[in-house]
Amino acid sequence: MQQSRTRINRNIRAKEVRVIDPDGEQLGIMPVPKALDIAASLSLDLVEVSPQAKPPVCKIMDYGRFKYELTKKQQEARKKQTVVQLKEVKVRPKTGDHDLETKLKNIRKFIEKRNKVKVTVMFRGREITMSDRGRSVLESIITEVEDVAVVESTPKFEGRTMMMILVPKA
């Protein structure tokens, strides 16, 4: 966190600092005690905003308000970011047409919410010999949702399952 590393007032270690007043005007390079006196006369804090600069840059401001605005910016950034989840829909090679339609509705719902969808065909027992039927189920799903989704990962076998990943169109 940035605010834990920010030095203020007496914690500033440099001998001289470049000082900026609350209005953004440069007051010049001066010793830290003099800058602290100016900040105290304005009832504000001296905050080190750029410690790497030569000499370090300090601004006279209300540190409490600065921290408050910083946390507000971080909250706003968090609010705007989207988390893409991977939803999974499982089918079998013998899944009926009506059940497949229901699964397609779910896939469309997930895609509309901007989530990725992992479609898995599970084979049990001797169904493993029906791998062509499983592939045709996945191909039919692709053709049904091609208006809203694209294939990120093509159908492939992993053990007793065949899977593919669909993502929303950009």
Automatic annotation (TrEMBL):
<dbReference type="GO" id="GO:0005829">
    <property type="term" value="C:cytosol"/>
</dbReference>
<dbReference type="GO" id="GO:0043022">
    <property type="term" value="F:ribosome binding"/>
</dbReference>
<dbReference type="InterPro" id="IPR019815">
    <property type="entry name" value="Translation_initiation_fac_3_C"/>
</dbReference>
<comment type="function">
    <text>IF-3 binds to the 30S ribosomal subunit and shifts the equilibrium between 70S ribosomes and their 50S and 30S subunits in favor of the free subunits, thus enhancing the availability of 30S subunits on which protein synthesis initiation begins.</text>
</comment>
<dbReference type="GO" id="GO:0016020">
    <property type="term" value="C:membrane"/>
</dbReference>
<dbReference type="Pfam" id="PF05198">
    <property type="entry name" value="IF3_N"/>
</dbReference>
<keyword id="KW-0963">Cytoplasm</keyword>
<dbReference type="InterPro" id="IPR036787">
    <property type="entry name" value="T_IF-3_N_sf"/>
</dbReference>
<comment type="similarity">
    <text>Belongs to the IF-3 family.</text>
</comment>
<feature type="domain" description="Translation initiation factor 3 N-terminal">
    <location>
        <begin position="8"/>
        <end position="77"/>
    </location>
</feature>
<dbReference type="InterPro" id="IPR001288">
    <property type="entry name" value="Translation_initiation_fac_3"/>
</dbReference>
<dbReference type="InterPro" id="IPR019814">
    <property type="entry name" value="Translation_initiation_fac_3_N"/>
</dbReference>
<dbReference type="Pfam" id="PF00707">
    <property type="entry name" value="IF3_C"/>
</dbReference>
<protein>
    <recommendedName>
        <fullName>Translation initiation factor IF-3</fullName>
    </recommendedName>
</protein>
<comment type="subunit">
    <text>Monomer.</text>
</comment>
<keyword id="KW-0648">Protein biosynthesis</keyword>
<keyword id="KW-0396">Initiation factor</keyword>
<dbReference type="GO" id="GO:0032790">
    <property type="term" value="P:ribosome disassembly"/>
</dbReference>
<feature type="domain" description="Translation initiation factor 3 C-terminal">
    <location>
        <begin position="84"/>
        <end position="169"/>
    </location>
</feature>
<dbReference type="InterPro" id="IPR036788">
    <property type="entry name" value="T_IF-3_C_sf"/>
</dbReference>
<dbReference type="GO" id="GO:0003743">
    <property type="term" value="F:translation initiation factor activity"/>
</dbReference>
<dbReference type="InterPro" id="IPR019813">
    <property type="entry name" value="Translation_initiation_fac3_CS"/>
</dbReference>
